[in-house]
Design a protein that fits this description.
It comes from Amycolatopsis vastitatis. This protein is mainly β and 126 residues long. The chain contains no helices and 9 strands. Strands 1, 2, 5, 6, 7, 8 and 9 form a 7-stranded antiparallel beta sheet that branches. Strands 3-4 form a two-stranded antiparallel ribbon. The protein binds alpha-D-glucopyranuronic acid. The site of alpha-D-glucopyranuronic acid (GCU) has 8 residues, from loops.
Length: 126
Amino acid sequence: GSTRYEAESASLSTGGTIDANHAGFSGTGFANGANAVGSYVEWQVNGPASALAFGYANGTAAARPVDISVDGTVVATGVPFPATGAWTTWSTVTQPVNLAAGTHTVRLTATTADGPANLDYVDVSG
Ligand code: GCU
């Protein structure tokens, strides 16, 4: 099984908003991170876990890469969140991790001026 943490309960860097204007999301909305390098979305999640699956949409033609950090340490750089074809078309990107039992901080930080994709949730499993 897995545990879902909605973007509605995430922390966003300055300029990020929780929106609900593109249908198909889980829960009551999604995180629209600011369009800037360094823009982030951060969740508190519980381990143990071996995978993080991020629900997202990217209605542009270009991937929206992020660095993924756990407890302040970058565990994956420039992870692409590819175009999904429309802001209402949702997909997932999965990142393997090694989370011990207990609480962890997971942050996605945009590495381009476009900011992150619209982020819906993270499913924590394994
Ligand atoms: C559009 C879209 C937003 C999205 C933004 C972006 O404005 O409606 O949901 O976040 O593009 O490019 O990041």
